[in-house]
Amino acid sequence: MPYSSNVKFPRFMMHFSYAGQAYAGVQLNASAKIDSVQSVVERALYHFQPSQHPLRFGVSSRTDRGVHALHNTGTFDWIAPIDITTLVQPLNAYLTEKNEQVRILRIHPISPQFHFRRHCLGRKYVYRLGFLQKHEFTDVNTDIPFLRKKQRFLLRDMTPATYNLFEKDFITYIEPPYDLDAFRKGIEVFQGQHNFSAFTNSQGRLNMAMERRCPVKTMRLNFVEGEPMVPLMESSSLHSSMRVYNLVFEAEAFLYKLIRRITGTLVHIAKGQMTTQDVLDRFACPPDYYDSPYPTTLKPHGLFLHEVKYNEQDFLNPPLFRPDDVDDDVLMEIQDDDEDDEELDSKIMSVR
Hints:
One of its GO terms (biological process) is tRNA pseudouridine synthesis. This protein is an alpha+beta fold.
C-alpha cells in the first residue's frame, strides 16, 4: 500500500493466518496459476465494499509459496459505511464458504503515518524439521516396471511426508545419514550480526537492490525439541522412528528465502557436505559465493511465520521513520519469483 500522510479514508491493520500450501505465496503474482493470499483477502474485503472503489492491501511479510503463517499483518484503507472492525466473523464466514485456507484474527484502526513494514519491530519464524532415524521407502521392487522407471524419484521424494495426510505440508523431513551435533554447531555460527547476501539467491539480491535493503542482519536462532502435529501419529507405520525439532529464527527482517537457505546449509553441514568454515567464508566475502551450488533451498513444508511484532502504542502514534526509504509503489511491484523452489535436489537427499 502506498504510504501517504494525506489519506482521505480511515486506515486499518488486519492480522491474519493462512495455510501456505494452498497458495502461490502471499503477494499478488499475475503469472501464478493459483491464487495468492493477498488476492483472497482482497476478494473477501470487496465482498463487503463497493467494487468501484479501489482497494489495495499491503502485506508486511511476503512469505514464499508453501510457507504458512500463524500471524501475518497487512494494511488497507476502508471506505464502505460498514464498521470494518465488526466484520471479522463475517469475513471468516465468507472465507469458509469459499473453502479458503485463510482466517482473519483481528482488525483495528491505525494512524495514516503508521507503516506496516518500517514500524515492525521484528519477525519470528519456526521451521518444523523431522529427523528420520532410518531410510523410508527405499526397498523398491524393481521387478515392477513402473517402480523401476521411477526408482530414482522414489528415493528422493517418497518419504512419510508423501503419505501422512496430517504432516505432509507441515514438516520437512531430513533423512539419514546426518550428524545432529554438527547441525547444532552450525546454528551457533549463524547467531548474531552477519552479511547474509551469500545466503539469498539472485532474485533476493535483485530485490535488495530495488528496495535498497541492507544484507546485514542480526539473527537469533534456537533449536528446541518439538512434537508431531498429531500426537497419535507417533504409533503410525507412516511415522516410524522420527524426532521432531523446531528451528526458531528471530530478526527484524529477513532476505528472500534466507531461512530456507540457512536451514539448507545446516542440513549440508549435518551431512558433511559443508563446514562451519564454509559459512564463515561466505560471511567474509559474499560475492565469491554468489554462483556456488551451495547452499540449496530447503522445501517450504513446515516453515511457519509465527509472529510479526509491533509496539501497540505505535499503531495510533507512530514514530517517524527515515524519509529516504524506498517508496511502497516500488515495493508493491516486486514479485518474488518462486519458480526455483525445486532447487532442492539430490545435493541434500542423495548423500545417504
